[in-house]
Design a protein that fits this description.
This protein is α+β, with helices and mostly antiparallel strands. It has helices spanning 54-70, 102-105, 113-132, 191-207, 221-230, 243-252, 264-277, 360-371, and strands at residues 16-24, 28-35, 40-47, 79-84, 90-95, 135-136, 145-147, 153-155, 162-163, 170-173, 285-289, 297-300, 305-309, 334-337, 416-423, 426-432, 441-446, 454-458, 462-466, 472-480, 490-495.
Length: 496
């Protein structure tokens, strides 16, 4: 849990009972709730009320859509639903992984080699599945691997994931596990980047520290970036780690992407070979590929690799995952715009040759951001669900049978983040429509102390009015749907 701020109040959610706080990040809190029907515990990630804006809502929608496509994989956290709370905050309801995440565990426990190998193979299958769906994770690290009640690892936090071929206007990184290409200008991401981060994560579990951290030496962000770019991996210093495993990890963390394993599957198979050489049970490498027919199973390596066909999931019908934030700056995910690249511009093609190291000025700027506490829990997208109308229900033939009564129309969420800006004798109020729909409008009421109340409507998410001469100007804003449904009032005030 982040120590930088107090957590927000948990929202009251229909069908859920609040239990406890699980963690806090830069723009969201994660709470434990008891779902009433079906009865189960779920983790619910909720955006902060004062941090919600159009970009974060789109990021939240993105996260849910990505997880909806991937969460059938046994090593990817499952999403149960996504919606907007009555107080206007978007939220994701996700599988609750009750055991400590790997970011917590590696700091207090010594991982056995067989466990690390098994974890690596399972997550490699999850990463390969994402890559086959055209998605790069871009933030694989110990804290983003949760552990289920059945001791299975589950990859989460696809909030800064991106299409492997689509446009991308932002880059995320967690410095100790990021590949060298993440520090280039502009940053680059390929499947080999995720392979690097997964290998760095496994090395962290074995060493109890990040792979480019020098015991007893200087380990500032600038130092780590320099070592990552030059490939200076600290020795594991464990006698029970076979040289073959160290070689596999070193190859996967080569500073030149072209010399790493070409795919996550190839990396997973290399880990399986180490298992076989150590006379350990070989962990199955599960990959879901929607290019195969649904239900098809393609077994390779005598069943060690299992590639299954999957049914495509409509991302707008939603299913996704939790974010277990980490509280220390070196582990934090940093999100930044790409210099000189606008949103919607095509992502640059992967480099075929190693790129020149980023200038010291750029590296130190990144380090300064970390030192200043730029700890961001990046949320991806939100799935918006609509209830389809249906024909009137006919009375059942059996008089004892219960007749379903249609639910009353749901009140839309109130506008959020209502803020005012004073300029001279005018005040401009703006707000955010957390769940926009065609035909939305806004009714507002403004009561200055020296004039009659103003009640009017606005089509946009802003209005400019005469400033209240008494010093504080306040407004009440209501969202009005095209079908006449109205939200609760949202209030905003500004002094000046």
């Amino acid at each position: 849990m982040s120590p930088k701020r107090a957590p927000s109040a948990p929202p009251e959610l229909p069908g859920y009972e609040y239990v406890s706080l699980l963690g806090s990040g830069g723009f969201a809190d994660v709470f434990l709730y008891q779902q009433l029907l079906p009865s189960r515990q779920v983790a619910i990630k909720v955006l902060l009320p004062d941090a919600v804006n159009r970009e974060l809502i789109e990021n939240f929608r993105h996260e849910a859509n990505v997880m909806a496509q991937l969460s059938t994989h046994p090593s990817i956290v499952t999403i149960y639903g996504a919606a907007v709370a009555p107080d206007g905050r978007p939220y994701l309801a996700m599988e609750y992984c009750s055991k400590p995440n790997l970011g917590v565990r590696y700091r207090r426990d010594r991982f056995a080699v067989p466990e690390v190998l098994s974890l690596g193979v399972q997550i490699a299958g999850a990463v390969e599945t994402a890559h086959r769906a055209g998605i790069l994770h871009r933030d694989i690290k110990p804290a983003n691997i949760l552990v289920t009640a059945y001791n299975r690892p589950a990859l989460t936090d696809f909030g800064i994931a991106t299409s492997a071929s689509g446009a991308d206007d932002a880059t995320g990184m967690s410095i100790p596990w990021s590949p060298p290409e993440a520090f280039q200008d502009p940053p680059r991401s390929t499947p080999a980047s995720d392979v690097f981060s997964l290998a760095a994560t496994l090395s962290t579990l074995l060493a109890g520290r990040t792979p480019f951290e020098l015991p007893g030496g200087s380990n500032s962000s600038v130092d780590l970036i320099d070592r990552i770019q030059s490939g200076e991996i600290s020795p594991l210093a464990r006698h029970d780690v076979p040289p073959r495993l160290e070689a596999v990890l070193a190859s996967a963390m080569d500073p030149d992407p072209s010399r790493r394993y070409a795919t996550a599957m190839a990396f997973g198979r290399a880990l399986q070979q180490v298992e076989a050489e150590m006379a350990l049970p070989v962990t199955p490498l599960d990959v879901l590929d929607d290019s195969l027919d649904a239900g098809a199973v393609d077994e390779e390596d005598g069943g060690a690799t299992r590639i299954r066909g999957v049914v495509s999931i409509d991302p707008h019908a939603g299913e996704a995952a939790p974010a277990m934030p980490t509280g220390t700056a070196p582990d934090a995910t940093i999100r930044r715009p790409r210099p000189g690249q606008a949103a919607g511009a095509a992502a640059p093609a992967p480099a075929s040759e190693p790129e020149a190291a980023a200038p010291d000025r750029r590296r130190r700027a990144i380090a300064s951001a970390v030192g200043a506490g730029l700890v961001v829990l990046v949320g991806g997208g939100i799935v918006w669900m609509a209830v389809a109308g249906s024909a009137p229900t006919q009375p059942p033939a059996n008089p004892s049978q219960t007749i379903a009564v249609p639910a009353a129309p749901q009140r839309p969420p109130a506008p959020i983040n209502v803020v005012g800006t004073v300029e001279g004798d005018s005040v401009t109020f703006t707000w955010v429509n957390a769940q926009p729909q065609p035909g939305d409008s806004f009714r507002y009421r403004y009561e200055p102390s020296d004039a009659d109340p103003t009640i009017s409507t606005a089509a946009a998410e802003s209005v400019t009015l005469q400033r209240d001469s008494d010093g504080e100007s306040c407004i009440l804003v209501t969202l009005v749907r095209s079908d006449g449904r109205q939200s609760n009032d949202a209030k905003g005030c500004v002094n000046g």
